[in-house]
Queue: 2 jobs
Job 1
Amino acid sequence: MSLGLLLRLGIGLLVLAFFAYRFYGVLVRGAYGAETWARLAISGLIIGSVYAVIALGYTLVYGILFMINFAHGEVMMIGAFAGYFVLEAFAASGFSARQPVLAIIITFLAGMTVSMLVGISLERIAYRPLRGAPRLVPLISAIGASIFLQNAAQLMFGSMRRTYSNPPALERNVGWVLEVAGKPVSITYTGVLTFAFSVVLMVGLYLLVQRTRLGRAMRAVAENKEAAALMGVDVDRVIANTFAISGVLAGAAGVMWGLHNGIIYHYVGFIPGLKAFTAAVLGGIGNIPGAMLGGIVLGIAESLTPAVLDMPFQLKDVLAFAVLVLVLIFRPTGILGEVLAEEKV
Amino acid sequence: MALLEVHNIHTYYDHIHALKGISFELDRGEIVALIGANGAGKTTTLNTISGIRHPREGSIIFDGQPIHHLPAHEIVQLGIAQVPEGRKIFSRLTVMENLDMGAFTRRDRAAIQEDLERVFKLFPRLKERRNQLGGTLSGGEQQMLAIARALMARPRVLLLDEPSMGLAPILVESIFQTITEISQQGMTILLVEQNANMALSVAHRAYVLETGRIVLYGPAAEVRENPQVRAAYLGEA
Ligand SMILES: Nc1ncnc2c1ncn2[C@@H]1O[C@H](COP(=O)(O)OP(=O)(O)OP(=O)(O)O)[C@@H](O)[C@H]1O
Ligand SMILES: [Mg+2]
């Protein structure tokens, strides 16, 4: 065992011990009641499912191009805007009140379609011309695309914060109320919708990748582009389809974000994008179940960790990334990650 | 007219001039061997036919149609399949999925099913292992899978790049036997080999490649008797 590895594990164990010590203190003092834990776990699960859906987009693209699509958060942001404008129109015309289900469906379709188109264009304009260039080059192009999309959104939509006008039937912060330890814990409608639709998307994606012709071609291209081409796969088209699918997922996440959290603006994709990227790495980048698991774990971790450590809730982002570092100390390839094949390194 | 005609192709890797004007042809039903030392340009030749690389000069005519400008996936669809060097099977796909990938361009379900049975008859071992991941097969089984996968395209021309590489002598025998069998069923085969002895024993005609040029060609039996070939490729004095 090398000195570096020992040092790493030592630091990891120290941090773990510190976590355990703080948590023990919290439990002994009974600082939080069961209802607080339940509330935190539920909100973590909901936000985690959104991270998971976004993380899938990172992992799909990475699996095929071995590239981090840093503009993915912006693809989500644009989807959120598309959904926003559709909902505004529906709210103004009264359609939202009359046909809430249809209104929500159309809103999602709009967000997903627009994000899909952005994803496809991104690949065509910013990445395809750089295929075959050293790996750092498309990465820099991705960062550029991300900045471009943020600024384009700011120019087009302004920099003010906008509030999603949910249909009356789907008001934010309204929902069912459970009793936990004699105290109320609310489960919001938007939260349930977000979680349920995320699960549907994840299952759908899994089936697409495992069971369809396109999915098989995606897996073949991920493994070896030249061999896939020799099978008659149009590799460029499969890559474009991969960006389309990750765009669809990002668009759905953007609309869910708007419906559940309410506020959107040109910068709204940045933090969820970063978190979802973290989630993808946490689960093992390139691994589809890993991205799902990583998203949920990260969501719950960022929601629970401040309470576990008895620290201010504002520290949740810092703590979420601390969890990432901790996981990577013990499992450098992520929770479900395999040792990377040479080709991917 | 030959089924596949290669006219004076020049293929480059950036500034490396890998193929310096190669011409040859395959007639229907023939096995043609392409032999040469490491780095002679054998793999480059196959990849240029398959459309993985494009020639900077020259032409490739398949069944009367120029194909040298077509992308790889369209060339497969026209009926040229390749068993690539080093097998390149999909290790995270099952044997069955690998075979499905071989038939990727086809929609004729009934005929695909027929071909599946045909390749399972050719390689019963693959049938037993059809739900196993490709990466968990032995080297010999992977080579069988690579050949079977290419056959699933129901090609008219089969390009084989060093099918004997890394196999035990007994497996080499059986692979070459299979190649003969496939040929007897009417397939046109271009066979690239380091194992010149074996290749020349099953081929009808042969071309010898040296640093991007064809230096010798003729009926396989004649090429085999050529003193230079015997010295250079058959390890004889
Ligand atoms: N991807 C590549 N980039 C640059 N040069 C290459 C590349 N592939 C092959 N070459 C060069 O082209 C020439 C022909 O290579 P090729 O792989 O066709 O040889 P080969 O006859 O198949 O050899 P082997 O028997 O070792 O497989 C060699 O000089 C090789 O170095
Ligand atoms: Mg070679």
Note: Chain A has a mean pLDDT of 93.
Job 2
Amino acid sequence: MATQASQTASRLMLSPAVLLLFLWMIVPLGMTIYFSFLRFNLLMPGTEAFTGFENYVYFFTDPAFWPALANTLTLVLGVLVITVIGGVALAVLLDQPMWGQGIVRVLVIAPFFVMPSVSALVWKNMLMNPVNGLFAAFARGLGLEPFDFFADAPLASIIVIVAWQWLPFATLILLTAMQSLDREQMEAAEMDGAGPFWRFLHLTVPHLTRATTVVVLIQTIFLLSVFAEILVTTNGGPGTASTTLTFLVYMQSMLQFDVGLGSAGGIVAVILANIVAIFLMRMIGRNLEA
Amino acid sequence: MGEIVLSEVKKSFGGVSIIQGIDLTIDDGEFAVFVGPSGCGKSTLLRLIAGLEDTSSGTISIDGHDATHLPPARRGLAMVFQSYALYPHMSVRKNIAFPLRMAGVPKDEQERKVEAAAKVLNLTPYLDRRPGQLSGGQRQRVAIGRAIVREPSAFLFDEPLSNLDAALRVSMRQEISELHRSLKTTMIYVTHDQVEAMTMANKIVVLNAGRIEQVGSPLELYKSPANLFVAGFIGSPKMNFIAGAEAAKHGVHTIGVRPEHIAIAADGPWKGVVGLAEHLGSDTFLKVQVDGIGPLTVRAGGEVGLNYGDTVGLAPQAGKLHRFDEGGRAVAG
Ligand SMILES: Nc1ncnc2c1ncn2[C@@H]1O[C@H](COP(=O)(O)OP(=O)(O)O)[C@@H](O)[C@H]1O
Ligand SMILES: [Mg+2]
């Protein structure tokens, strides 16, 4: 890719793909922006009209808006904390030579292959259910009152479910990073008299910052749009206790058939995602530079 | 103090025997070099001494105390690794001070020792850089500095120069030799390069397939190799081995003669044709196809006017022949 001709050729070759990707993004985005300025309710066809920022005003003044925003950030942050700490711990354990390593690694990765709605159903009906669930059975076995997870701690329960799904991803990325840690470095520290805890804190953790950055960035993108787990378990309730922005948009556009309001919510979610992304890149993006 | 005694040391990995019974004494203040082909177990032996691997059997004693089951940090040894093994997130200063910090040495004393080591190793201008910002030779110096400040009873080096370019290797070799002369501390140095072994060692330990082939000073190994392996491994270019009728004349299975011990003489007993001539200016290496014997490497001092296809007469120097029996062991006389 050095000569003028090969550069021109490579641009030419790339352009159809780039153009397709651009259209793929810009058409839905453009339509959503357009709809967000319309009065557009599917129950009242033919009444579409330009209304300016009215949809946005409705969305922001919706009593569920601020709780939803707080819930979204709590969900993202909670899952990130659990998966990063748990991922590092699991990666350290899986990096130890042990019998049956291959099988254990496959088992650890397994949750990642379960569809979100399926895993949410399993957690809801088989584990966290206050009557039939495994946890309730344990509680009764210990003579305790079973805990009604989705009624009493809906957001925390959803955080646990989503964290369970993303833990394998974090573990996998961190494990590969762990394996590239120079063994001689560890041995040198051992000879210099550093204990295991010190070695972990001052050699392993700094070595993992880059991989952790990747985990945080990628997971944030997906966690902002968590939906199936909420729909299947709590439906956003009780009240707005587990309603996130994504779920609020769904409720307004799908349940009230209000395309305009839903689109405005979607644009707000896009803006929020970008704010989070800029914030993250500022904070940890430089970890990715070589 | 830094006497290291190995007795009956064995090591196997998952049933594969890698170190097959080593008995060895390294005296205090000695510069011992473990040399041998790649994969012969040099690093493993060094790691056993360091305590980074457990012995399968046998004992290791350091300074007269049994150290076989001591953890690495309590053996009082410092190691310099092939990959340098510097801590990438710390400055050079912190890297060098690290073992002192772990030992709980007071801050101002740490600082003093780091400055002193940096001065010896010409690292003073780089103390506040990260290892990633240094060249290979400088990183190696930092690794050595980190070893020096501990004032260990012995230094262990595992092929410390193999990642450096040829010119730097020669100068670092001399620096390490000088360091040994000024510190007078025991050093064990692992290399596959017999030139490093010959130039640096007081005592060379030649290893092959997990066994010691011979132990001795560089010149002892050069003058009287105990067997074919040592004879072939020490010296460059390699010793010529001649079997068959020519060896039978000397009453043995194989005879060996070094390239520098063959003279070019028109009336020599061996006649041959030059196959390859390497003119280095200071020396000329000739590959000569000798009738009834085979190819011989000959080293002629200075520039000789011989080229491909020329016919030469060769005469081995009297008294410089090495004689080996069927098992490859040297035969005296
Ligand atoms: N941890 C280990 N597990 C299994 N085999 C090993 C291990 N370390 C070294 N070996 C084997 O021991 C042999 C000697 O290795 P090493 O001591 O590194 O050789 P050298 O340093 O002389 O090149 C090699 O065949 C290597 O494969
Ligand atoms: Mg080695």
Note: Chain A has one domain: 54-288.
